[in-house]
Design brief:
Elements lengths: L1 H8 L19 H28 L3 H31 L5 H15 L3
């Protein structure tokens, strides 16, 4: 929504195109997180593309606006990568998923509001 508000605030028109339904069948929890990491990489590439375009156009307000998203993507990719690493270590031990779930809950409670 921040992108849409930003575009509207700058006099643009924000349009939401149709999006494909997400995949919802996976063979494992790890596969879910690997798909999530692929998605985060895609989002990062799109943000980098917008950032580069804003720089090339000397649109410094947009460069400033996009900086927070560039920084956020570093954290998002790390969070998902960390979870994949934990899932790899837990393979073959379904009980360990309870510990990973607890880790995820603890991590969620540490996030700023």
């Amino acid at each position: 929504m921040k992108f849409y508000h930003y575009l509207n605030d700058r006099g643009g028109v924000a349009r939401l195109p149709a999006i494909e339904a997400p995949r919802w069948e996976y063979s494992s929890v790890r596969e879910v997180f690997e798909a999530s990491l692929d998605q985060e990489h895609s989002v990062t590439e799109h943000i980098y593309g917008l950032y580069k375009l804003a720089q090339d156009e000397s649109d410094f307000a947009t460069v400033s606006f996009l900086k927070r998203f560039v920084d956020e993507q570093v954290e998002e990719e790390k969070t998902v990568s960390d979870m994949i690493d934990k899932l790899k270590m837990a393979e073959g031990n379904p009980d360990s998923l309870l510990f990973i779930d607890r880790y995820a809950m603890d991590r969620k409670s540490e996030e700023p509001v």
